Amino acid sequence: MGPDGPHLLERDALRLAVRTLTAADTARWDAFVAACPEATFFHRAGWKTVIERAFGHRTHYLFAERDGTIVGVLPLTEIKSRLFGHALISNAFCVYGGIAATDEDARQALDTHARALARQLCVGHLEYRNLRPFHRDWPTQDLYYTFRKEIAPDVETNLKAIPRKQRAMVRKGMKHGLKAEFDGDVERFYALFADNVHRHGTPALPRRYFALLKEVFGADCDVLIVTHAGRPVSGVLTFWFRDEVLPYYAGDVPVARELAANDFKYWALMRHACERGYRVFDYGRSKRGTGQFDFKKNWGFEPQPLHYEYDLVRLPAIPQHNPANPKYRLFIALWKRLPLPVANALGPAIVKNLG
Questions:
Q1: Which residues form a coiled coil (predicted)?
Q2: In the predicted model, is pLDDT for residue 217 greater than 60?
Q3: Interhelix angle for 207-217 vs 46-55, to 10°?
Q4: Which of 32, 102, 170, 227 is 20 to 30 A from 191 in CA distance terms?
Q5: Whether the predicted model's global pTM rises above the 0.85 cut
Q6: Between vectors from CA 150 to CA 145 and to CA 152, what angle results, nearest 5°?
């Protein structure tokens, strides 16, 4: 480096500014997300609209800009709840988040701004949901894992890549005459989703949230429904991003297990993605020790730890607002006993604050 090198670097850093996303910046933000290797579907600007309109939460979408060019983004959602506390999360209702940037100056500027904002807002904690570690000095937890695998360009190769026992379940679904079709709305899916989470003792997200996902993300958000003799038995709401397919929300009825409808559902989606030229199947997040975790492993997907990092601003420890927490066992048992219409009416007011 020449004698002016350090001074040039300092001037380059001085040209960097952190700004808050406005409607006028949305196209530039999404163009950056589409091009940045670190960015995910959950960094898209549309989540700001969905979260604000579905839940009423305040959002703080920050971007770093140098000479008029976006070089980093950080979507943040502020959740303030009497039950679950006050948090700043990147990104709430999403499995991935954190800072996506093209250089370290942008990354550090966004991080500094977020930490200052967390203290200005007096939140309990700031949370980054990272695919890779960033703040190794922050408290973290190894509760969540993601499952990602490349899709072969040939349909039959993908079928043969599924381990034998799980492949037999896919064929079982075929023998039962299951059909897979895409819906233009979320009505059939929501009935399956709400019934499923109720059986597991979990409050359901509101129908409006899923309708907004379809409205805001358009063709990049699909609903696949599996039917048996014309009756919906399983469904999945899926995101499409670059060359990736992300089955994100799912639901089914009890008979789906004996019909192997869930295996058939994910195979139908993988086959469709293969035929469309997609190259990565992202099975999403699961907690260690759960049936979902084991199901995805049985498909031949290797679990990859997610790095959820916490800046404890006012809290003494990482909050544990998840069904694995023993203190929620009684609540889960009672919730299962509620009539489904009552659970669907009460659930959104609770789950909107879990993020």
A1: none
A2: yes
A3: 160
A4: 170
A5: yes
A6: 150
